[in-house]
Amino acid sequence: MKIHFYKYQGTGNDFVILDNREGAYSNLTREQIHFLCDRRFGIGADGLMLLNLKTGYDFEMKYYNADGRQSSMCGNGGRCLVKFASHMGIVKDRYCFIAVDGEHEADIDGDIISLKMKDVDAVDPYGVDAILNTGSPHYVKIVGNLMDTDVFQKGKEIRYSNAFEKEGINVNFVQVKDDDEISVRTYERGVEDETLSCGTGVTASALVCYHNEAGFNNVIVNTRGGQLTVEFDRIDDGTYSNIWLCGPAEKVYEGEIVL
After folding, report:
1. Which domain range does residue 236 map to?
2. pLDDT tens, 228-247?
């Protein structure tokens, strides 16, 4: 089977994307997807996405982790898929697409792709840390020196702890830099390693760090792969709406591979 693929990245979070509007790749197996994402034997990526047709929407996003399992929402993946859709001739002033966690809106302004994330009902304390779902489940831990943190080892310990081993959880380590700026490093389930950036993790970290700031918030987030911004409204009852993840997404290359 010959596959024509596209490689995109958003702040270093990289993805294999397949145009599946004719259904050519609907039956890929978990093993095949894992192979395509393998950095030594395949193309190499943090995940794989299918651009599908969906009645009533501009497209459907179907996302798989690098381990080949279908996964929950990926923020940077969503932004990359919007950019890919525009390259494929789906050009809109505002996109409306469907993903595993529901409807999303997005727009493109030059190099910046802005993606509206799902509303968040609560940030739950977990000891001195926090847990929340921004389309994917996230654990957020504030640290004093982010660059000296062993993200792989400490993230793996939390992800595979008794409380989270079965379903898995993404683990974010966050350092607050300023009144409106943070730095984040993330251990991602499904990749089972640190990634250069995680969109839903960046979003979760911004909400946790500014959960006492009612009203509109605009947070600058530094990742190892680049800078993103998270905009959101915090309601007095502790819920969050109008959440937007904003940043660059770029095509890296395209090619063919035989399975």
Report:
1. 124-246
2. 999 999 998 889 999 999 99
